[in-house]
Amino acid sequence: MAAVTPLLSTHGVSRYFGGLVAVDHVNFEVLPREIRALIGPNGAGKTTLVNLICGRLAPSSGTVYFEGEEITHHPAHIRVGKGIAYTFQITSIFGNLSCADNVALAAQRALTRATGRHKPRNYRRTTLSASITEALDRVGLADRAQLQAASLSYGHQRLLEVAMGLALQPKLLILDEPTQGLSDGEIEHFCNLVKTVATEATILLIEHNMPVVMALANRITVLHHGAILAEGTPEEIRANTAVQKAYLGANGGEEGRVDY
Amino acid sequence: MIGRTESTRVVGLHGAILTALFLLQFILPAYHHGMLTRIMVLATYAIGYNILFGYTGLLSLGHAMFFAAGLYGAGLTVYHLAWPVLLGFVSGVLSGFILAVMIGFLALRTVGVAFMIVTMMFAQAFYLLTLYYADYTRGDEGFVLTQNMRRLALGEWTFNLADPIIRYNAALLLLSICLIACLLLVHSSRGRVLVAIRENEERATMLGYNTFANKLMAMLMSGMMCAAAGAAYGLLFGYVGSTFASIHYSISPLLWVLLGGAATTLGPLLGTLCMFYLVDISSGYTSAYLLFVGLILVLLIVCFPKGILGTIRERRLTWLP
């Protein structure tokens, strides 16, 4: 394993909010092309850690590296430019714009980055509309391209959020609780989608839904009280007694298994 | 994303309105002719305001400083340094640009109410400066640019900007340029980013946009357009005074834009037009015309919170830019 350079790594990152330690000296690595799940009880610091990675928060101490380059002090929009895409936990699409425009905002950014500003207009326009269609197609929203985003059902809004992430053509796609509020059928569709995306991008998945985590993740990192409690394959995590305790409290579950 | 037919419609509509404005000068009586000239210059001011307020979602209460920067940038150089009109105009626009850079770097660190207050304070400071340097500006009383100063020499041609016909067409030219610039911006990918910032700045950042840089760009465009309107106002009507830097002139474009429809390209023009004629007609009947205007505005906000064109766009013509 040591031979593989991690795509993303954090070295001793911490973040305090006043006296509260939200993230405590975390050393965290994500390898290229894996699906990594980040789980933990509520308040474990998952979202804070991810915010440190994508630049929405600055760490109180520690460093963050992406593709071997230190990005600790890069603002969020620069990190997105380097290939870190973040889809919001709370759906935050542009409700007044059409679905196509929502995705266009992401796609035109990726396009500018990939080709520079000075390509002919027609070239840019056709490439742009092609990548919009592609992103919407992959999440199954192609037929709703011209609808106003706010008029979509909640599940479709979540998918649109993912489409925006895809249109950025990221190297690392961070999905923050993507299946929250989705129906079973939508979750299944979503899992298939993530599997296809994983063939070209690394995925960091923050998720509460254990069946989804177990089905998708190559490796799982468990966060508890702001620190890494355990890390390993789904089987290892399932069998880990410390994890079971963290989740189920001191008295333990009747079966002692992590599959809620 | 807009389709072919929609963009034809949009171009057609804007072309038709500019053509109508051009043709109106041949049929309008002198009084309305002069009034429309003034409206076109001030509508340009409103268009500039709308870029920042309507599209980018930044409510400034200090835009009079940009208008006045253009007014004084042109007026002072023409009056004191005897600069030719064109150079004076450029100096006016440049003053607006420089001011927008300075204000942008400072004020864009704030959002919402704080932004309103910061811009208002800067505008007040600017207003007080125009009073303080009364040796040059002659303060409230202002100064008059004589007809001789307002001759625009282009090659062998000399245009007298005090001539109503020249004045009307100069105003129309300015309005056309700014309206088309605004339309191009709105339909560009850059314009879409501004709207994204207005709708959800956090999300725009996480799509990889430097929101500060984009807001600054909007501020510069807005400031320059407003300054161009101010410079044109001084040069066309020949009067430069600090009233134009007062808070009254910061609020006016906000009202015009709200009336016509924020974040619509033609809203500022329509709003300015309606407001002027509202005041004009009502003041013919009563001296308490502001009460009358106020009532109509309240009704309008209650019934059409998105302004005239904003409401039309919502209910009927969704393709309106």
Strand order of the largest sheet of chain B: 1-4
Strand pairing plus helix content of chain B: what structural class? mainly alpha
Helix content class of chain B: over 70%
Number of strands of chain A: 10
Brief sketch in words of this structure:
The complex is a heterodimer of chains A (about 260) and B (about 325). Chain A is an alpha/beta fold and about 260 residues long.
Notes on the structure:
The complex is a heterodimer of chains A (260) and B (321). With 260 residues, chain A is of the alpha/beta class. Chain A has a domain at 96-169. Chain A has helices at 46-54, 76-82, 99-115, 121-139, 154-167, 184-197, 210-216, 234-239, 241-248, and strands at residues 8-17, 20-30, 35-39, 61-66, 69-70, 84-87, 172-176, 202-206, 219-224, 227-232. In chain A, strand 9 (219-224) and strand 10 (227-232) form a beta hairpin. In chain A, helix 3 (99-115) runs parallel beside helix 5 (154-167). The longest helix of chain A has 19 residues, at 121-139. Chain A is globular. The relative contact order of chain A is 0.16. Chain B has 321 residues and is mainly alpha-helical. Chain B has a single domain (4-315), classed as Orthogonal Bundle (ABC transporter involved in vitamin B12 uptake, BtuC), CATH 1.10.3470. Helices cover 75% and strands 4% of the residues of chain B. Chain B has helices at residues 4-27, 30-55, 64-80, 85-107, 112-132, 134-137, 164-187, 189-199, 201-206, 211-237, 247-260, 267-285, 289-303, 307-315; strands at residues 143-144, 151-154, 157-160, 239-240. In chain B, the strands form 2 sheets. In chain B, strands 1-4 form a two-stranded antiparallel ribbon. In chain B, strands 2-3 form a two-stranded antiparallel ribbon. In chain B, a hairpin with a 2-residue loop joins strand 2 and strand 3. In chain B, helix 3 packs across helix 10 (211-237) and helix 7 (164-187) packs across helix 8 (189-199). The longest helix of chain B is centred in the C-terminal third of the chain and has 27 residues, at 211-237. In chain B, 43% of the residues are buried. The A-B interface holds A 54, 56, 75-77, 80-81, 85-86, 88, 92-98, 100-101, 104-106, 108-110, 113, 128-129, 132, 145-146, 164, 168 and B 1, 189, 192-193, 195-196, 199-200, 202-211.
